[in-house]
Every structure is written in C-alpha cells, then in structure tokens.
Design brief:
It contains 14 helices and 17 strands. It has about 425 residues and is an alpha/beta fold. It has three domains: about 5-190, MoaB/Mog-like domain (Molybdenum Cofactor Biosythetic Enzyme, Chain A, 3-Layer(aba) Sandwich); about 195-270, Alpha-Beta Plaits (2-Layer Sandwich); about 275-429, Alpha-Beta Complex (Maf protein). Strands 2-1-3-8-7-6 form a six-stranded mixed sheet, sandwiched between helices. A five-stranded mixed sheet has the order 14-13-15-16-17, sandwiched between helices. Helix 2 (about 35-45) runs parallel beside helix 6, helix 3 crosses helix 4 (about 90-100) and helix 9 runs parallel beside helix 14. The longest helix is centred in the last third of the chain and has 20 residues, at about 410-429. The chain is elongated.
C-alpha cells in the first residue's frame, strides 16, 4: 500500500478532504477535551482543505488501526494526533503501520538523537523511550523541537489516490510548533492552490424548519457552495463555504448565494458577516443617534449585560434597572400600583408601563420593559412558565410582544432578551 518516488510526487490530491484522528483514552472521559483538532482544522482550512471527519480513538491498537484504515479510504489528508510517547499505551506508530500494511523499524539516527537529548539534560534515558525512535517504513521524520516524540510524514497511494498521513505528538505545545514548522511547508508544496471563502448569515426569532423550507430550493442549486444551518437559542446561523483554486472565484459564488438568501429572507436577516445581534443593535442605535434604557424583571439584567458586553456600548446604552419585586417596579419605573394589583406583574400592561417609565426616568430615546415567568415554578394555567411580555416605547407609541418560550429558566431568559434585541433592531433598521 505504501509508495514513494517521483511518480507519486507528480500526483495531485483530487478532493482536498481531511480527517483528524485524536488518540487517547483520556479524551473519551468527561475530564479531557480535544483542542488540538481546532488548531489543525484552522491550519488546514487556510490551505483550502476541508476537514470532513474528526474521530477520537482510545489507546487500543485494533480500533486505532481500523480508524486509520477507514480514514485513508475517505480522506486525502489524515492527521493522527497523540500516541507517540514512550509508554505501553502509546500505540499510534504500530497501529498506523498495520493499517498501511508495512513494518516499523528502529531508526539509529532517531535513537542517537534521543540519547543525546537526555545526556544534554544530564538525565539517564529510560529504556522505554527507545520506542520513540521507531519509524514506519517509508515515513519522513518530523523533528520535534519541544519534546522527545518525533512526528512522521507519510506520502502514499491508496488505490489510485494520493494520501498524506501526518503523525503528530499530543501535547499542544509540541503539536502546534511541529505543524507550523514542519507540516505547513510540506503541505503547501504538495497541494494544488486552493482557497476557501466563507460567509455567515444570521436570522433572529424564526424556527429552523421555516428557514430551511424557504431556503432549501435556493441553496440546493449551488452545488459548489456548502451550506450549513445551525440552530441556536433564538437565532439561526447560515454558514456558507466554497473552495476554489482562486479565492475571488470562491468568494463570488458565496456572495451570489448570500444575495439570493437575503432577497428571500429580507429583514429577517440581522447579520450578513457574522456579527452578533448585540453588535447590530448598537450599530443601528449609534448611526441614528439614539439611546436605550431597560427595565427588566424575569431576565434579571441579562439584556443589559448583553448590550454592555460590546465595547463602546456606553454611547447608546444609558442604563436601566432590574425590577424583580412589585415595589421596585413602582419605585424605579413608575408602574402604577393599581395596575399591578389588577393586571398582575406579568401582563401586557405592566410591560408597557416598565418601558414607558424607564424611558421617561432616564430620558432615553427608547425604553424596553420585560416581565415574565422564567420558571421552573410560578406558572399558572392562565400564565404558564415561559410566558413573557416585551415592550418597546419610542416616545410616540408602545409596542408589546407576547411570547411563550419553552425550555428551562436560562433558555426562557435568553429568548426574552433575544426578542427584545430584535425589536430594537427592527425599530431602527
């Protein structure tokens, strides 16, 4: 299976797909996470390579060999991270050799370099470190400037397709330095020019099913643009990605699809370049010379927190109050006591009064009032958990939105703040 030589070097990778395999039983527990793959993915994407699979395998040779063989069958570049250490459970070299159908041999130069490294530190090298000098037949050594485990670069052919197999150490400090110094130059030389263009469009307060029903007839006609729809709390993200030999060509295709999507969704799209809803709201407020103040009950200051998380928000966000009790609704936002008694704290009327009262108190352009039942207790048949009223007062009229959000307390509070932000956006767009 393993092959080298000038004939191989003349081949071009045909699809530019990559798979990352993270090795280590600890990564299959709740206590350790694979963060190396994020770095490797970013580096591969910069070369126009799409990562299509990520696999985590424990320290078991049969399963690891199987994962490598499977990866070689479906990806052009396979990065195996970890399992190059000196211990009995470091089995990457042996497993990869098994998947390739070749042998592992101890390399004299590597072994001498290991002895020298320990000698320079005036430490006697343990016998088990010798296995780090084992080199897969046909592999090229990737020097490790920060550790004892060298990496390995394997250029091979599987069937009729060229494959690149990278064996990298697990410690992030070692992996990042090795990938940058040793792998990137080799990849740039091996791969044909390819660039990835991206756009992220964001939609607020629409269900994923509705978004896809409207957009599927559009994005399915762009076969060369990968469209991914991600649902977040109160937000749908459309990730558009296209890989071409020329970046401008790829970007043109992405922009064409983005334009078609914007025509269909119109003002439902609040961001076409990945900005957050908070950023967009503050942008609209600033260009209009407007300010906002908030009176929050069930959200407990979450709306204010989201707005003030953006640098420069003080130019548009005046402030506000968390008015959890009826007494504070009266004192800080001038909500009439008889209204609270007659309508209840969670009502359309009180939300409007909160927005109106806080706007007048601080003399902001608009006021936002939020009241509701975030749960998990406090709901009734008439006013269930998840019922929220959000009001916007602009000094001329007061608009009140009634929503029933499902989910736990955090989800209800987040959705309420998201709805409030979207109301502000639509007011000033």
């Amino acid at each position: 299976m393993l092959s080298t030589g000038s004939a191989l070097n003349s081949l071009l990778i045909h699809t530019m797909l990559a798979e990352i395999i993270a090795v280590g039983s600890e990564l299959l527990t709740p206590f350790r996470q694979d963060t190396n793959s994020l770095f490797v993915t970013e580096q591969l994407n910069s070369l126009g390579v799409s990562v299509v699979f990520k696999t985590i395998v424990g320290d078991r040779k049969p399963q690891l060999a199987q994962a490598v063989a499977l990866a070689l069958g479906r990806a052009d570049i396979v990065c195996v991270m970890g399992g190059l250490g000196p211990t009995e459970d470091d089995l990457t070299r042996e497993a990869v050799a098994e998947a390739l159908g070749v042998r592992v041999r101890r390399n004299g130069d590597l072994l001498a370099a290991l002895y020298k490294r320990f000698a320079e530190r005036r430490i006697s090298m343990p016998a088990n470190n010798s296995k780090q000098a084992d080199l897969i037949d046909g592999a090229e050594i990737l020097p490790n400037a920060n550790g004892t485990a060298p990496g390995q670069w394997i250029d091979t052919v599987v069937g009729e397709h060229r494959k690149l197999l990278l064996l990298l150490p697990g410690p992030p400090f070692e992996l990042k330095a090795m990938f940058t110094a040793e792998c990137l130059p080799r990849l740039r030389e091996a791969l044909p020019p390819r660039h990835i263009a991206r756009r992220v469009l964001k939609i607020a307060m629409l269900p994923e099913s509705e978004v896809d029903a409207r957009l599927a007839p559009i994005y399915t006609r762009f076969n060369d643009v990968e469209t991914t729809i991600l649902a977040h709390a109160g937000e749908i993200q459309l990730h558009l990605q296209c890989a071409k030999a020329i970046l401008e060509v790829a970007q043109t295709r992405v922009n064409e699809l983005a334009s078609r999507i914007e025509e269909e969704m119109e003002d439902a799209i609040f961001s076409s370049h990945g900005e957050s809803l908070e950023e967009i709201v503050l942008y609209y407020l600033e260009i209009r010379g407007a300010t906002v103040a908030v009176a929050e009950s069930c959200t407990g200051g979450l709306l204010a927190q989201r707005l003030t998380s953006i640098g420069g928000s003080s130019r548009s966000f005046v402030g506000g109050a968390v008015v959890y009790t009826d007494a504070l609704k009266v004192e800080f936002a001038d909500v009439p006591e008889d209204m609270l008694e007659e309508k209840g704290a969670v009502s359309r009327e009180v939300a409007a009064a909160l927005a109106h009262g806080i706007r007048r108190r601080v003399q902001s352009t608009i006021g936002i009032g939020i009241t509701g039942i975030a749960g998990p207790t406090g709901g009734t048949e008439e006013k269930p958990v998840g019922l929220v009223y959000i009001a916007l007062d602009d000094g001329k009229e007061i608009n009140v939105c009634e929503r029933n959000f499902r989910g736990d307390r955090d989800r209800v509070r987040w959705f309420a703040s998201q709805q409030a932000l979207d109301m502000i956006r639509r007011k000033f767009m």
